Request: fold
Amino acid sequence: MSSNSDFVLAIEDLTVSFDGFKAIDALTLYVDKGELRVIIGPNGAGKTTLLDLICGKTRASTGSIKFKNREMTELAEHEIVRAGIGRKFQTPSIYENLSVFKNLEVSFPRGRGVFGALRFRCSEDVVARIDEVAQEIGLHDQLQLEAGLLSHGQKQWLEIGMLLMQDPELLMLDEPIAGMSVRERELTAELLERICRNRSMIVIEHDMDFVKKIAHKVTVMHQGKILAEGPMERVQSDPRVIDVYLGH
Amino acid sequence: MEKLRKWITGSDFAGLVILAVVVFVVFPAALDVFRLNLVGKYLTYAFVAVGLVMLWGYGGILSLGQGVFFGLGGYCMAMFLKLEASDPESTKIQSTPGIPDFMDWNQLTALPVWWEPFHHLPFALMAVLIVPALLAFVVGFAMFKRRVGGVYFAIITQAVALVLSVLIIGQQGYTGGVNGMTDLKTMLGWDIRTDSAKTILYYANGVLLFVAILACRAVQRSKLGTLLLAMRDKEDRVRFSGYDVANFKVFVFCLAAMLCGVGGAMFALQVGFMSPSFVGIVPSIEMVIFAAVGGRMSLVGAVYGSLAVNFAKTYFSESFPELWLFLMAALFIGVVMAFPNGLAGLYESHVKPRLGRRPPGGSPREDAVSAPAAAPVPPASRPVLRAGTPDAGADGGAPGPAAA
Reply:
C-alpha cells in the first residue's frame, strides 16, 4: 500500500474510528528530516489522537505509519520508543516523587530490560549526558530537587529533557507551552530551535505567535482531516482555515 | 549533599542494626523457647510483609492473595517433611505403609507421581522458591500484559487465593485437606521438635529474613527500584520512555511470591504443620495489614508490623477472642486513615526529628535546594530517594491519559 521514501515519518491513509466516529479520517502526512512541523486546529480536530496513533497509545483502524520506512502500526509502545520516537504529553508527565536527576537518569536509554535495570550503573557517561541535558533545559541548578517542587514551566522542560535523554529522531510535543509565562514561552521557543537541529519534530500548539516563531511548516487539522498545509503565512491567509479556526 | 547522603545511608544502616539486635539478641535473651518459637512464626510472616513492601509500596500493585504463595512454599516444605515422617517403619499400622497417613485414610494405595520428587530435600528447597514464583509469573504475565491493574488485579488475586484453598481442601487425599499436613517430625533425621532445633530454626529464619531485606534493598537502590516508583507515579511516562512496563510488574510480583515461599517453608519447619488456613482470603488480607501497619515503604518497618500485629493477635485472641476480628479491622482502618505510612511513617515524622538533629540545615529537602548548584554530580551519586507517599488509592492508579 505504501512505498518507501526519504521522509522520516510517512503517514498514509490513516483512519481510526471510535464507535463509528472517525477521529482521524484517511489522513496522509509526511514529515521531513530535520523539520519542525506544527499541527494546529480547533478542539476535537484529532491532533492529540494523531500523536496517540503515532506513538502506539491508540491503534489505527486502517492505514500505515512508517518511521524511517519501518511500519509502526503493529509495534508495542516501548518498541516504537526504541525505534526513535519520543512523545511529550499534554499535561507535564514527570515523576514527581523523584529528583530531577533521577527523572533524567531513568530516561537514559540503557538497561531497559528487567535484568538490565538491575545491573544498570549510573556511570560517567550517564552523568555527563544528564549534565548536558540539564544545561539544555535550564534545570542544572535543580538537579537534586524533587521534581514535584518545580514550577509548571520547569516541569514541561523536564519532560522535554527526559525525551532528549533518549535522543529520539522524531520528537512529538503536545502543547509544550500551555500554562507558561511569556518569558518561559520565549525560552521554550529557543529551546525547541536548538534541539530541532538534528531531529524532526511535531508540535501541537494553539498559540499563534509561538507557532509563527518556531514552525517550518504548519498543518491545519479539522474533523480528522487535513485542511491546509504549508508555510505559516500561506496557511494563515487560507480562507478555509480562517473560517474554521483562526476566525475573521 | 555528601553529608546528607551518608546520613541517610547511615540511618538506613542503623535501622537494620537495631532490628538485628532485636531479632538476634533481645528476643532470644528475653523469651523462653516456646515464646521464641512463636516470634519465629511471626517472623515468617515478615517475609510476606517485606515482599509486599516491594510489590505494593514500591510497585503500587496491591495483591490480596499473598497467602497463596506463602502456602505453596509451606506445602512444598511440608511435603518433604511429611514424606520423611511417613517411612514404612512408623506407618506400618496403615493399610499401605510408607505413604502419608492422610493418603491412607483417603484410600490411596500408592504415592502420587508428583509427590515422588519431594523425597529429596534439594528438590523441595528449589520448589519452595520456584513453585510460588512460577504461579506468580503465570498470573502476573496474564494480567499485566493485558494491563489489568489496581482493584481488578487485587480481586483476581483474591480469586486465586479462594481457588487454591478450595482446591487444597477438596483434594484431601493428595493434600491432607482442611487439616493440612500435620505431624512433621524430622528433616534429614534431625528432630525439628526439640528445643535446640527450634532455637536453631529461629536463628536460621532470622538470617534468611535479613538476606531477604538486603536483597530487596539492593533492588530498591537499582534502577529497577527507581522504575517501580516511577511506574507507580506515571505508568504511561515509563511506557513511553521505552520500557515494557508489564515485565517489571511481573518481576516484582515473582520476587514477592518467592519471599512468601521462603516464609511459608520456614513456617512449616518451625510450627511443624501446614494447612489451608494460611492460604485463603482472610490470611492474605491479614498479611497486607502487617505491611500496612509496619509501613508499606519500609522493609524494616514491615518486620515490626508483622511482629506488632501478631503479638496483638495472640494477646487479644487469648483474652478477648470474639473481639479480635473487630480490633483487626479497626486497626486497618485506623492505619489507612490516620497514618498511611504505618509505624515507619510515624517514626519518620515524630521520632526522628527529636533524635539529635544530625543533618545540618534541617530537612533533606531544604538541604537539597541549598546544595551548591554548580557542583557536578559525582558518578556514584545516588540522589536521595525519599519514601514518597503514594496516592491515597492503594492501587497506585494508572495516570489519566492525555485528553484528546
Remarks:
- Residues 174 and 246 of chain A are 19 Å apart (CA to CA).
- The longest helix of chain A spans residues 152-165.
- Chain A touches chain B through 57 residues (CB under 8 Å).
- The mean pLDDT of chain A is 92.
